[in-house]
Amino acid sequence: MAPLVSIIVPVYRVEAYLAKCIDSIRAQTLRDFELILIDDGSPDNCGAMCDRYAAEDARIRVVHQSNQGLAAVRNAGLREVTGRFVGFVDSDDWIEPDMYEVLVRQIERDASDIAICSIWNGPEDRQSAAHRSGSIQVLERDQFVRMISEDVVITNHVPNKLFRRELLTGSYFEEGRYFEDIFFFTTLLPRVSKVSYVDAPKYHYVQRHDGISGSNKPASRWDRYDACKERRAWIASRYPELDEYAAAALIRPGFSLYDGFALDLGVPAAQAEQVVADFKDVWPKIRSTALLPVTLRMKARFMMKQPVAYRMIRRLFDFCWPA
Fold this sequence. Notes:
Layout: E1 5-11, H1 18-26, E2 33-40, H2 46-56, E3 60-65, H3 70-80, E4 85-88, E5 94-95, H4 99-110, E6 114-122, E7 136-140, H5 141-150, E8 161-164, H6 180-188, E9 194-206, H7 218-238, H8 243-248, H9 251-262, H10 269-286, H11 294-305, H12 307-316
Parallel strand pairs: 1-2, 1-4, 2-3, 6-9
Antiparallel strand pairs: 4-8, 5-9, 6-8, 7-9
């Protein structure tokens, strides 16, 4: 008999974190799940740890593969799922014991496509939750599009969410890209009708300096910006009334990319020039928006008007110009 929930966990070089992650899943108050561990050719002891857990718990299955990256691992997991609902947990994170019970109850009660909880965020020993009112919202598609574009209350991460399996049919993570979560959600937006949001922190997201999301590689900076730009194009064509939100979402990743060029961190000049052109394009949308601080809008105006002076100041006073 198929399980109620399929949980996909990518595993690569997380020997110090893996046991805590798996133990938190096994401790779920909702017992009807399958846990799919995808060992992405991890060079440490992770593969053997996965096999030991599978030998102890019949709900756990392990797939061993050569190293292919996070997006490919999640795709491999999607090919294995058999449950009615699908969740993702990153192997250096952990979850509260009732997370999946809460999400399943809400997605079934509201007949939603996705159920979301808020998160604990920060280093493992200093986590905090910005959103924990306990309230529940049922969002129509346009509300969900707005909130995920803001990326504040509802973030672009997949792990604190539960998806109906049929919603994911034909959707996969874009391999070879950083910030694959943003690209992934853009492919889902046309199919989402209703989303449930539970404002209670149930997922512990651990900030690691060596993690993918914290990478400052030129390719990472570009992929984050390109993902937000692709989403903005989709939103502008279908929800022009929400374009202000999508335009505002370009600014911070745009600065990260442009500053990578200004600080000689390997970002190509052509990409930096593209940022300037895009900022000029969205300026009518962001020049007075309350979605961005006044200081950030002033910074954007200065960068567009005086790009050479901006780069000089950025190099001289790095600490004064946060990305």
